[in-house]
Amino acid sequence: MTVAGPIVFRADSRFLIDSSSGRRGPQLEDFMYSLSYSLRLLHSGKVVAWYSPKRKEGMVELRLFEF
């Protein structure tokens, strides 16, 4: 989902479907939020920040696609 111009918000989830655990239905295994900003000056990179509440970890990355 694009928020505004070069800023994009994204939410990813992973579900577990396992009948051997005795639980019914899918279980939410992981969920991750991310926000990215495309670098207009370089035209070939972006800054990405993501966070996973279940794992309690996150990261800020600088991705360069071409030099």
UniProtKB/TrEMBL annotation:
<dbReference type="InterPro" id="IPR044160">
    <property type="entry name" value="TGD4-like"/>
</dbReference>
<protein>
    <submittedName>
        <fullName>Uncharacterized protein</fullName>
    </submittedName>
</protein>
